[in-house]
Amino acid sequence: MLIGQEPLRRGPSGAVRGVLAAVASLALVAVPAAALAPSATAAPASPTEEAPPNERAPRVPSPPDLGNTPWMTEAGRDMKGYRLSTYTGKYYDKSREQYRLCVIQRESGGNYDEPSGPWRGAYQFSDTLAAGALRAMRAEISDVYGNAGRQALDSLEGKLIYTWPRFFQDAAFWTTFNKGAGASHWAGGSWFCDPARNAESGWPSPNHWNYTPLERDKGNGGDDGKGGDQAADSSTPRAGTPEHNQLLARAFIRDKYGWRYPEFRALKDMWWRESNWRHTVINNHPNGPWYGLGQVNGGFIASRGYSIDEYMASPIAQIKVGAAYIKQRYGSPSKAWSFWQANGWY
Fold this sequence. Notes:
346 residues; mainly alpha; Lysozyme; 5 strands; 3% strand; disordered N terminus
């Protein structure tokens, strides 16, 4: 405006006034207001700038979108190992995804088809709890997936949870957990998983018991299941595998103590919960550490004449020590398993 005011005070001719008016008009259109403002009053940074990351929060990637029938996908049907949650519905909480993985490693070692004991599946649901979860999931699954969802839920009625696809077991966990309201279902035992948001990290962990890598061949060293010595004679498990360790244990307790199949079944279920029948696991709990198949402490191992190195190198030594512990403390595997079921340890 200063350009137009000063000449007007001097009384320019009409032609000059027309030129000046045109110049003023162009100036007002071409120059944005921000450019005319003093630098001291520059606009602050946009409040919508992305905040710096929370370095304390576990870096959990977003789970994949599995489409309109997630229970039919490869991921949604996978029954072995660890994956990001295949369920991402209204009960899913990304800040507790590491808590979920802590629970699943503790409870089943990533085995969704785990059938043992009164608790079953990846998250070790009782049959009653699983039936309640199925009812609780129905409204959301039907609303989101329509008739396909209703039919899928109908097909699960009356089936034990360890036969449910991974997607529905994940959904049952999150629905039962219910933003923390149902955390008490997984609160017991000596291994504590903290259900607070972003409280857990580093799961699954190869340094803890119940560790099962994401592989489909039950630990045959990366073979695709179509070759190698084990494939040539599928009736004889490879030495060092959980299946072979169970064969050794069944023969030993029968020959040494006269414990027949019912006792072996109790031992099988109990040591599955302790070590997944993997003789290399060490549980570095503050009250431990506990070692091997039966998760026996170092003092008892030494009392049976073994060093820790000798014990950890030999599945049969672990079976001898573990069976001796059970005989001395409980009298039999079935009595030890009954105690375990009531207390979460033995």
